[in-house]
Design goal:
The structure is a homodimer of 433-residue chains. Chain A has 433 residues and is an alpha/beta fold. Chain A has two domains: 9-45 and 313-432, Aspartate Aminotransferase, domain 1 (Alpha-Beta Complex); 48-308, Aspartate Aminotransferase, domain 2 (3-Layer(aba) Sandwich). In chain A, 45% of the residues lie in helices and 14% in strands. Chain A has 16 helices and 14 strands. Chains A and B meet through helix 1, helix 3, helix 4, helix 7 and helix 8 of A and helix 1, helix 3, helix 4, helix 7 and helix 8 of B.
């Protein structure tokens, strides 16, 4: 007789990501064109550069042995310093000299197993059941699952072309205060560069306003901003924006999360964070319990790629490739939906996603006629409702996330064509009815 | 004005490992001989074998790209199968054919960021505040910290030369049942091969008895056995023992944890677990939230080392090296303490540790005269009380853990000589008083 397992409360709250099934479907059937998964382009993966970096690291026996030995929980010092030096460029408005600034930033840096682990550790460090985390809506839904696994509520703030609406955020915070719930707010989560799923960035003035609101409402204790910059390096047009972390006062309020998965290689599983000084030690202690430090060899590889210039070279190549793919998708959308004014989408300046909206209210959920017709036509997409706060009964159900990360331009065009075919089929049926 | 951080309950329960300070002390002062850290021997790290494996993986562009792309949360299929095939050798008493058995084991396998992450995930999946985890005492103290971070109580069971006393375990379980606390017991943790810190292994008959007790007392729900086999491959004498997992009925009750950190390279940060079938999915969901899969490149490297035979070759080399180091330490102890019958130690057949006891009651804690004199003489050791359940006020305080992992034989001998000098100094002072 099998005795029942007794899972923890947290385990019972932890569910699978809604798109796991989509990803496995795409893996099983190679004839399907996946515009669903946010994976990176296979062809861009830097096998030669990584091979060179590993060979260089392991060629020197003493460096090689250090790379194969245990590292520290915080991560490789030279890598943390290199990351800090890059980030120091954000702080130009502030009068600090670059070198001490980089040292100070490096001391508050931690290397993690992808930026996902940083998001997890920060949540684990701050959230108790009953707490509240505020996010953009739509947002990176995998992180919504993390928040809910800790027993917290996710509250969404709508977005416009400048990113999260700080007016709506201010209203939400004021409302929470009136309801006596302000003390439960621990974090405001923003993917402020080329957001997943909308491709939108938070504008410069909104960054200032977001930080000001976090400060203003930190009456019952600090409300931190979790600034997820995962897509920052994937910029195809326009100029870079300074991080919220680098705004005056930002260091106390902002956790900045970065990764090498999107701009280099997910297989190295190396991300990083810059933390408020008083959060660094608590996070290190948690990470000590998790794994006492991420893969040391990966860290040596990444440090070498940064130091040799190979990373920046790769980034140029990546930008050219993705810019071409984004353009292919946008052109295909313009062609396919030329006669459909009800179908609207944004023109992302970076990242991996185009966000599409059916203003005629066409449903896009996993059981909708459109989703099924698209699947039938051989294209997989992510229902927009997966990206909204799923406890919100009124969330929009007529949007789609399209990723141009994986497929090559001909497949992107064909995928969009199939989506158009599915839409035509579904709307014609509706008109017939 | 700095607003206070508000850390989660779990974060507040998470503390630093007591030996972190010791390890940093050793790193700062290279004249110190560290018999403290359980790190692996630097000279044995397989830089050439790893360089070859990476080169082979990255030489084939399609394999190389797969290694640099995202993997699955459970980990690389070929690696899980290779591990399952190795473990299948344990199941010789059972009539199942090897191939389906290996497939079944592979389906319950998960690759983690070192075995530490597996211990963490299993604890997170099972433990709620107020629960109880039973461990050997002394035991791997870092894991005690993990248990306590989840708000559970650690209860220790004494050991003898056959490992955990199953008589004492039976008494403890009966006592917990009488006290109405049996339903809080979630896990029994055992490092059953060359244990950290004692070097002892759980005997074959005790393995059977331990499993029987877990089954017998699983009345209010299953009590799992967490079998930490981290040191299993580091065997210098005698023959291997089958895992508890492989005993009849074990698959339902046992989580088996293994690692490549000790027998290969900590820098690859690759461990693994075999889980009861119904625990596999809950753990995958948690790991999905943590990092959706460990470093893929490391997994390809390890899979290649296993498949090419380089891992087994390395293991032979490692055993020869550590056997020699163990012997050096044991000889030095025999010489140094020849005239001190009050100083006793075991003869470990594997692992990285010698456990030493002062039967005259000489204290060994971090503030003890002996510890300070040893530090003064230039040798670092781990106070045995760190390894016992720290909430137990009556825990022994006259033991030491000595590691022969890091130092070479001449430094091991010198380290033991310095310890002897410190002991002589302290006992002479005592005699003078």
């Amino acid at each position: 007789m099998t005795r029942p397992l007794r899972l923890s409360e947290q385990s019972l709250r932890t569910t699978d990501s809604p798109i796991t099934e989509l990803i496995y479907t795409a893996m099983r059937d190679r004839s399907l064109i996946s515009l669903a998964a946010g994976l990176v382009d296979e062809e861009t993966l830097p096998t030669a550069a990584v091979a060179q970096a590993v060979a260089a690291v392991l060629a020197d026996p003493s460096v090689g042995r250090a790379a194969l030995q245990y590292g520290t929980t915080a991560g490789l010092g030279s890598l943390r310093l290199a990351l800090a030096q890059r980030l120091a460029g954000d702080f130009t408005q502030q009068p600090t000299a670059a070198a001490p600034l980089a040292d100070a930033l490096a001391a508050r840096c931690i290397i993690t197993s992808g930026s996902q682990q940083l998001l997890y550790l920060v949540s684990e460090a701050l959230i108790d059941p009953g707490d509240i985390v505020i996010t953009e809506s739509p947002s990176y839904f995998v992180y919504h699952g993390v928040i809910e696994s800790f027993g917290a509520r996710v509250l969404g703030v709508p977005m416009d072309h400048e990113g999260m609406s700080t007016t709506a955020l201010a209203e939400l915070l004021a409302e929470l205060e009136r309801a006596g719930q302000l003390h439960r707010v621990k974090l405001i989560y923003t993917v402020d560069y080329f957001q997943n799923p909308t491709g939108l960035s938070l504008s410069a003035s909104r960054r200032v306003e977001l930080l000001r609101l976090a400060q203003q409402y930190s009456r019952d204790g600090r409300i931190l901003i979790l600034e997820d910059a995962a897509y920052r390096d994937l910029r195809y047009d326009g100029s870079d924006l300074p991080s919220i972390l680098s705004l005056p006062g930002g260091e106390e309020y902002v956790v900045y999360a970065g990764t090498f998965s999107k701009p280099c290689s997910p297989g190295l599983k190396t991300g990083y964070g810059f933390l408020p000084a008083d959060l660094h030690e608590p996070i290190l202690h948690l990470k000590g319990n998790h794994d006492f430090g991420s893969s040391n060899l990966s860290q040596y590889i990444v440090a070498h790629l940064l130091q040799s210039g190979a990373f920046d070279q790769h980034l140029e190549h990546l930008r050219t490739t993705y810019r071409r793919k984004r353009d292919a998708m946008l052109e295909a959308l313009a062609e396919t939906f030329a006669d459909c004014p009800a179908v609207q989408w944004n023109q992302p300046a970076g990242g991996l996603y185009v966000w599409l909206e059916f203003t005629d209210g066409t449903r896009t959920g996993p059981d909708s006629p459109l989703f099924r017709a698209a699947r039938q036509a051989g294209v997989l997409v992510v229902p927009g409702e997966f990206c909204h706060v799923t406890t919100d009964q009124d969330r929009p159900r007529h949007q789609l996330r399209l990723s141009f990360g994986v497929a090559d331009p001909p497949r992107l065009r064909e995928g969009v064509r199939r989506l158009g075919q599915a839409y035509a089929q579904v709307t014609k049926q509706l008109q017939t009815v």
